[in-house]
Amino acid sequence: MYLKTAPPVYEGSARLILDDRRVSVSDLGQALAANTTSGNANPIATEAELVSSKRVLKRALEMLSHKKLSHKITSIDKVASRLRVKIVPATNILELRYKDSDPELVAAMLNAISNAMVQENGESIRQQASSVRKFIEGRIPEQQEKLARAETAESRFKQANSIVSLETQDTSLTNSLTALEDQERTLMAQLQEAQRKSEQLQKVIGSKNIQSAYTASRAGQDDELKGLRVRLVELDSQIIEARSRFSDQHPLVINLLQKRDEIRALYNQSLRRIVPVESSIPANEVASDDLSRSLISTYITGEIEYNALRDKLKVIRSQKVALQSDVTELPAKQRILSALVRRHEQEATTLKLLENKLEEARIAEAQLVSNVHIVGLASVPTSPANPKPMVILLLGTTAGLVLAIGVILLGEMLNTKIGSAEEVEDQIKLPVLGNLTERLRIQPGQLDRFLNNPKAVEPYRRLLKKLQLNNKNHLKSILVSSSISGEGKSSVCVYLATVAAMLSKRTLLIDADLTNPLQHYFFNLSAQPGLSDAVCEEASLLSVVQHTEIEGLDVLTYGGFPNRHAQVIEATAMKKLIATAMTLYDLVIICTSPLRDYADTMTLSGETDGVVLVVRPDFTPKAIAQQMIDDLQRSGASILGTVVNVTPDPINLLPASNKEGKLMMEETPKHEIKANKGDHFQHIEGQRFF
Fold first, then answer.
1. Residue 9 DSSP class
2. How far is Cα 612 from Cα 479, in angstroms, rounded to an integer?
3. Looking at CB atoms within 10 Å, which of 256, 439, 444, 528 has the fewest?
4. What pLDDT digit, counting tens, does each position of 635-689 carry?
């Protein structure tokens, strides 16, 4: 039905690839077109989501609106529901699939979506480039101001510190400092040599300083002083001679001392004329000869050179200290200048980079770049994708089987009744002795018609044979019962006893169902005398049995409704009666009350050869039947098997509740039921009254 009624649905496919090919002429365009996403996002998955976005689908529908398929265009939501986007494993390829009843619309829609995705991606990159361009244009003036400030700061620092080139200045200072150190070492060596010579000359000339040596030299060259020194020498000689002869208080000695002092004073006065500096040089220390004067001259020259070398050494050392100070300060200046230069270079580099990126952004903005490309356009599908006959048939068959199984299982769960004969053995675990499928409608007193029907007789004949074979032909008594009333056990007893008598067996049918007796009805017999009379009054069996129109078949009716029918079943006379019947007859068939309501079957099962249970398909409850079987087995009863019977008992008599005859009513077949002589009830059409 689905294949006949479902419209055909066509499906097409197109493919897009996401790559980072360098299709832009600018680095910025290539960077914007690259497959870069933030965080751990998958770029191909991101593009797959964008394909089915409303913005892309709206653009695709706008493309289709200009074509002849515009009247077939649906809403964006319907397009999104029919569109499927799949990532081809281990690739950057997106596969787009679209379904619709129109094959031309399928191909047109897929191609429009593919082109819209490419354009959307390109415009997105262009918008990013435009945003970058605007940002850079705003940054360039700021960067130019920063660069100007950096250049000014560097220039001012160089001017303040007289720096042209730190590298050159560092080399010059190092070379100058090295030269001064060399000069210092040379001067120190020269100074030491001059000092050594001066000390040696001092020892020779006996002068302690250059001034006294100069004075001694000048004094030794003056003629006046020479004469005065001669006179002093003479006076010293005279004094020494006078003192050798006279004492110091002698007038001659005193006169000579006065003259010597006068000449010495004149000598000092003349000496001050020659040497303006105050000095006192003994006459004996005056360089009066050429050698002394030469030595003094050499000494003075050496002292002058020594002093000059010392002064020059001081100057060099002061220059060295100044150079060392400059060299020490140079690293600090170098750091400051390097920072200024580095800042200058950074600002210049940033400005250059911004200018380059601005040019690249302008190129990328002018150029349409996309990292999504179409690698497979959709073609018009020629055969429908759905419905697929084989798939639909397979699914339908599977669904039918599942549904059938479900219905069967549900029916099994809901059906609490015993099923067909084939299912009885599986359900209650007992062998099926007979399957009585014919519905027999025999009127009372007309059992000859039953025996003349081979089709009706044969199932009961087969049932009897099975019972005899299973018991090795020693079967003497059978107890027939059922789980509940209405299963047709009374009918089975009648027909089984009739067939047994037909087979030349002296048969006795005992109606022990004192709650709902029916056997007298089938044979059109009187209910009394019967079983209750034989047990309660201890009458002989032969005196209470009744002969039927079937040769060899006797019936022991119920005999009346006792007040306490359980006493009849449990009585010792009942057991004796069954034993007597088994000696007088070839086969005794006892019909008892239903197992669910009464314990008669369990009581009498020990007195017979076995129990036969009658079940009615779709009528007997499985749970009750199984419970009754368990009860029989626990009581020690021998269960011969089950009989599947489809014919219910024609009359369902209910027990009277008391002797006064309480009114009981039950639905009966609508045909007229004729009252029999001896019955304890009156028939009215459709009802019975006790």
1. B
2. 6
3. 439
4. 888 889 899 988 887 754 444 433 333 323 233 333 333 333 334 333 333 333 3
Closest CA to 639 of 478, 483, 473, 436: 478
Strand partners, 588: 477, 508
Name every residue whose Cβ is closer than 8 Å to that of residue 108 and which is 6 or more positions away in sequence: 64, 67, 69
Helix (H, G, I), strand (E, B) or coil at 482: strand
The residue behind tokens 């120190």 is: 188
> Closest by alpha carbon to 305, among 180, 208, 192, 183?
192
Q: Is 216 helix (H, G, I), strand (E, B) or coil?
A: helix
Alpha carbon distance 375, 95 (integer Å):
10
Which residue(s) pair with 556 in the sheet? 510
* Type of residue numbered 261: D
In the prediction, which pLDDT does 684 show?
Answer: 32
The rounded radius of gyration (Å) of the Cα atoms in the chain is 76
Average pLDDT over all residues of the chain: 78
One-letter amino acid identity for 10? Y
Query: How many residues in the chain?
Result: 690
Q: Are 485 and 637 in contact (CB under 8 A)?
A: no
Q: Which residues pair with 11 in a beta bridge?
A: 99
Return the H-helix or E-strand segment holding 615: strand 611-615
Six-digit token pair at 652?
């369902």
> Of 1-5, 36-40, 107-111, which range is least confident?
36-40
Helix axes 290-366, 210-221, angle to 10 degrees: 140
What's the pTM value of the predicted model, to 2 decimals? Answer: 0.44
> Is the C-alpha dihedral spanning 519, 524, 527, 531 positive or negative?
negative
Sign of CA dihedral 306, 309, 315, 321: negative
CB 83 within 8 A of CB 52: yes
CA–CA distance from 424 to each of 198, 361, 413, 418, 644 (Å)? 154, 90, 16, 7, 8
Beta strands in 303-390 (DSSP E): 372-376
pLDDT above 60 for 137: yes
> What are the phi and psi torsion angles at 295 (to 5°)?
-65, -40
**323-369: per-residue pLDDT in tens?**
777 667 667 777 787 788 888 888 889 888 888 888 877 776 666 56
Is the pLDDT at 591 greater than 70? The verdict is yes
d(C-alpha 200, C-alpha 188), whole Å: 18
Residue 510, beta-bridge partner list? 556, 590
Report the first-to-last Cα separation within the chain, whole angstroms. Answer: 61
Cα–Cα distance measured from residue 498 to residue 450, given in angstroms and rounded to the nearest whole number:
9
What is the rounded distance in angstroms from the CA atom of residue 59 to the CA atom of residue 65?
Answer: 10
Q: By the 8 A CB rule, do 556 and 544 touch?
A: yes
Burial class (CB in 10 A: 0-12, 13-18, 19+), 436: buried
Phi, psi dihedral angles at 645 (to 5 degrees) = -125, 130
Contacts of 415 (CB under 8 A, 6+ apart): 618
Q: Tell me what the mean pLDDT of segment 253-264 comes to.
A: 85
